[in-house]
């Protein structure tokens, strides 16, 4: 079946649906990307971001394909997608990329629209949605051919997040690695989604402080050795300082 989409709300809705219904893999090809909030209405950004985090929790292999910078500096996509790359997604940078394609195992959207809020709110865009198996496979083959021999950025290429002290409100769920409010008392160390899924005993494999994957973490030891050492030093200093004004 082929379906023509003639407005940005329908196109963005299909992008969201493709992400939500991905099971094994997901290709998101957009020369320009915006997934950070600004002063504009952020419903699109919030929904896309939530859907991507959910796909990561389901262990979907997510590959972003975006435009390489013209002057060999850090591309816009590298900055915007750093959070997702750190969580295991891959980014491929293609010089002079202009194609916009969104694809999972069952359907593909070929469109004029970037995954960019300005495009959703202001542009006249069009898209073609395909769900015929051969068409999906042909588009997947096109994407994989395009990304071959081009620059790939993965988790190994991104600097590890620095340890956050207790005054910075950024921590990580030890179960799924979602960003959550940092709890200096280490009582709330998993996100609401994992609480709702009845995760038992608060056990996971991500450090609550830096998000680094490692051994099994729990409520009794929610941090890697490096973060735990720094955390203990700060707590001990704070305790000493309060006793020695």
How would you describe what is shown here?
- With 245 residues, the chain is α+β, with helices and mostly antiparallel strands.
- It folds into two domains: 2-157, 2-Layer Sandwich (Endonuclease, Chain A), CATH 3.30.870; 171-243, no CATH class.
- The chain is built from eight helices and twelve strands.
- The chain has helices at 8-20, 43-57, 76-80, 82-86, 117-122, 133-147, 192-196, 225-243; strands at 2-5, 25-29, 61-67, 90-94, 101-103, 108-111, 127-130, 151-153, 171-172, 179-180, 204-206, 213-217.
- The strands form three sheets. The chain has an eight-stranded mixed β-sheet with strand order 1-7-6-5-2-3-4-8, with helices on both faces.
- Helix 1 packs parallel to helix 2 (43-57).
- The longest helix is centred in the last third of the chain and has 19 residues, at 225-243.
- It starts with a strand and ends with a helix.
Which keywords apply here?
elongated, Endonuclease, Chain A, 245 residues, alpha+beta, eight-stranded mixed β-sheet, 12 strands
Strand and helix map with partners:
Layout: E1 2-5, H1 8-20, E2 25-29, H2 43-57, E3 61-67, H3 76-80, H4 82-86, E4 90-94, E5 101-103, E6 108-111, H5 117-122, E7 127-130, H6 133-147, E8 151-153, E9 171-172, E10 179-180, H7 192-196, E11 204-206, E12 213-217, H8 225-243
Parallel strand pairs: 2-3, 3-4
Antiparallel strand pairs: 1-7, 2-5, 4-8, 5-6, 6-7, 9-10, 11-12
């Amino acid at each position: 079946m082929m379906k023509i989409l003639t407005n940005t709300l329908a196109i963005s809705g299909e992008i969201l649906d493709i992400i939500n219904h991905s099971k094994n893999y997901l290709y998101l090809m957009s020369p320009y990307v915006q997934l950070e909030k600004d002063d504009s209405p952020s419903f699109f950004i919030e929904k896309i971001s939530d859907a991507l985090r959910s796909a990561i929790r389901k262990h979907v292999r997510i590959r972003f394909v975006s435009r390489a910078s013209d002057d060999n500096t850090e591309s816009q996509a590298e900055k915007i997608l750093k959070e997702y790359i750190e969580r295991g997604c891959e980014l491929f940078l293609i010089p002079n990329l202009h194609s916009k394609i969104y694809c999972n195992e069952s359907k593909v959207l070929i469109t004029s629209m970037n995954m960019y809020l300005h495009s959703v709110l202001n542009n006249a865009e069009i898209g073609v949605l395909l769900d015929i198996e051969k068409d999906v496979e042909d588009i997947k083959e096109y994407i994989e051919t395009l990304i071959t021999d081009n620059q790939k950025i993965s988790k190994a290429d991104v600097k590890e997040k620095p340890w956050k002290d207790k005054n910075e409100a950024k921590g990580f769920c030890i179960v799924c690695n979602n960003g959550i409010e940092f709890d200096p008392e280490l009582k709330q160390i998993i996100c609401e989604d994992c609480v709702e899924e009845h995760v038992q005993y608060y056990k996971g494999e991500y450090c609550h402080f830096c998000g680094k994957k490692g051994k099994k973490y729990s409520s009794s030891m929610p941090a890697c050795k490096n973060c735990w050492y720094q955390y203990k030093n700060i707590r001990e200093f704070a305790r000493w300082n309060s006793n020695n004004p």
